[in-house]
Write a structure and sequence with these properties.
Elements: H1 2-25, H2 32-47, H3 58-67, E1 73-77, H4 85-88, E2 96-100, H5 108-120, E3 125-131, H6 135-141, H7 148-154, H8 158-167, H9 173-195, H10 197-204, E4 209-215, E5 222-226, H11 231-234
Parallel strand pairs: 1-2, 1-3, 3-4
Antiparallel strand pairs: 4-5
Helix pairs in contact: 8-9, 9-10
Length: about 240
């Protein structure tokens, strides 16, 4: 009888561990394409002034506090205060795993966070979202003096800007900035694959999808670019 009781206790304990694991890493149940559609629909509502502001009440807070988080998308965006990710996509608590940093660069901290989202939380979609009038990219294009820390922060942007300047040397400053903002978005996706074997393997296996986007801070509209034009080469296919 004592042995049976101990086995029952062990069984209940294991069930508790399993429930905890599901709460933290069960995933949203959506595929990458479904997640992308959900973001697009949310942005359409936002632009139309018809946001419904879901999952922002006490019940949602309690649900995510007790049952864990199950975000359906990871968004790497700029820290710019004009780019409030959940608002832009009309989402709420526990819906989007957001990584924000000046210039939406993909360096160690950002990539590690995205790895956590993909592997531990089961997030199927990563969106690298640049935005118009990005101050970080503009500073690199203009070669403005910055502090040592900011210089290290924006270092990943430099290759994208150099490539744009080499290709479009005769363009106006405004055009160079706009093209560099888009190029930096692609650079971040390249850096994700180059610096994260995990995310590269998951993308190659179809477990995650990584797409680029550009947010217009005036209109509120997100322009979608899809996967990297050199996706096959980046994944070694």
């Amino acid at each position: 009888m004592k042995r049976l009781s101990m086995l029952l206790v062990a069984f209940v304990f294991c069930l508790g561990l399993a429930a905890s694991a599901v709460a933290s890493s069960g995933g949203s149940g959506l595929g990458a394409d479904e997640a992308l559609t959900k973001l697009k629909e949310g942005n359409d509502r936002y632009v139309a002034g018809a946001s419904v502001a879901p999952h922002q009440d006490a019940a949602r807070r309690h649900e995510t506090a007790t049952s864990g988080q199950h975000p359906f998308a990871t968004v790497l965006s700029c820290a710019d205060s004009r780019v409030p990710v959940e608002v832009v996509f009309d989402q709420g608590v526990g819906d989007v795993f957001v990584v924000r940093v000046a210039g939406n660069v993909a360096a160690v901290d950002e990539i590690g966070t995205m790895e956590y989202g993909a592997e531990h939380l089961g997030v199927p979609l990563i969106v690298v979202m640049a935005h118009t009038k990005c101050g970080a990219v503009t500073a690199v294009v203009k070669n403005e003096p910055v502090t040592e820390n900011i210089g290290q922060l924006v270092a990943p942007i430099v290759p994208a800007v150099k490539a744009v300047k080499a290709r479009f040397a005769s363009d106006s400053l405004e055009d160079l900035i706009n093209k560099s903002i888009e190029a930096n978005m692609w650079q971040a996706i390249s850096d994700i694959y180059a610096k994260s074997p995990m995310l590269k393997q998951m993308a190659a296996a179809g477990k995650i999808k990584v797409v680029g986007a550009l947010y217009d801070i005036d209109s509120g509209q997100v322009r979608w670019f899809g996967e990297h034009p050199s996706q096959a080469n980046l994944l070694g296919k």
